[in-house]
Amino acid sequence: MHSKSARIWGKKKNRQFQALVLDWYATNQRSLPWRSQPTPYRVWISEIMLQQTQVRTVVPYFERFVRRFPDLASLACASEEEIMALWSGLGYYRRARNLHRAALMIAGEFDGKFPDTLRKIGGLPGIGRYTAAAIHSIAFNRPQAVVDGNIKRVITRLHAAAANEPEDFFWRQAKAWRHNRRASDFTQAVMELGALVCRPARPLCSACPVQSLCKSHAMSISHRVPAPRPKRASERVDLVVLVLESRGKVIITKERAAGFVPGEWVLPAKIISAEKTDRAKAAKSLAKNILGRSIAVEERMVVRHTITYRRVYAHVFYADVKGCRIEIPEGGNICLADASGGDNFVTSSLYKKALNHALCR
Ligand code: SF4
């Protein structure tokens, strides 16, 4: 049986809320780099970077990214490798690949101009319902209902709603309080309220501009948060990784053993079973595939790394292969990179760590 959904506010309360939040935002908003020139391109990049990632982590990445790729044209012309290098460390690498795909799509289908309708924005790779609405509202000043985790929490508390309120309730409330003229400021103001005042733990009710409208505060239950989405269970992945060094160079490859590790060029690696695989044997056989002959490899260390829900254990093996003839076919899948600058080619933080540790840097 469904419990009855909470009622959304009427016109008068929505107007009060708009006025209070906008007043507060005018003097309390943080100075963030994407707010200084909120072009569709910059708002889009910031919204994608902010997915699953905190503002303070995103700021330096955003600044570097837009310095290197100041507009859609420069992003569309970039190589995936270069985009990945700038994204390295930010995680959820599919976001970066989708940015590139979307930039190419805009160049091809929209004449290089960022689309200005909700439907077209929502059709770009990597953009879901929330992100499309946020971009349309913030960058184009269009009244859109915008609901993310922060806004859901604010709505839950304002209404003292049940923790498992149906999704539709939040979208109906967000639609009802849209601001027609100042959509961009209003959307950012509600987001800012959730981030700075109506925080997940210990909301700052005494400094809250909408305290007078808040049912949870009146009922002294302002700590309540919406039920979290069930998390994907974490999964352990074991890899053997090879650092094959020859006269100051290391072998890198385009054969990606683990698709979830980013980068076009990676260290030779293989997924193994932690219980069943003999790691040294697996490393030797991988080296033999590359070099065409058996060599001795030495296990140097285990590098632990987390990529989204995967806990990766990389068992790093090292061999000095200066005595081996290494065939490097032109345009092939392996090459020799300078060991001192090898990490410029290898963009994943996991392989960078493996390389630096194995070479004792
Ligand atoms: Fe959130 Fe407290 Fe403000 Fe209510 S009064 S909206 S719980 S910060």
What would a concise description of this structure say?
With 361 residues, this protein is of the alpha+beta class. The protein has two domains: 11-218, Endonuclease III, domain 1; 235-358, Nucleoside Triphosphate Pyrophosphohydrolase, CATH 3.90.79. It contains 16 helices and six strands.
Features:
361 residues; Endonuclease III, domain 1; 16 helices; alpha+beta
Description:
By secondary structure, the protein is an alpha+beta fold. It has two domains: 11-218, Hypothetical protein, domain 2 (Endonuclease III, domain 1); 235-358, Nucleoside Triphosphate Pyrophosphohydrolase. Helix content is 44%, strand content 13%. The protein has 16 helices and six strands. It has helices at 11-28, 33-36, 40-50, 55-68, 72-77, 80-87, 94-109, 118-122, 129-140, 149-159, 167-176, 183-196, 215-218, 279-291, 342-345, 349-358, and strands spanning 235-246, 249-253, 269-272, 298-307, 310-320, 334-338. Strands 1, 2, 3, 4, 5 and 6 form a six-stranded mixed β-sheet that branches. Strand 4 and strand 5 form a beta hairpin. The model has no long low-confidence stretch (mean pLDDT 90). Bound molecules: iron/sulfur cluster. Iron/sulfur cluster (SF4) binds at residues 154, 157-158, 197-198, 203-205, 208, 210-211, 214, 216-217, 222.
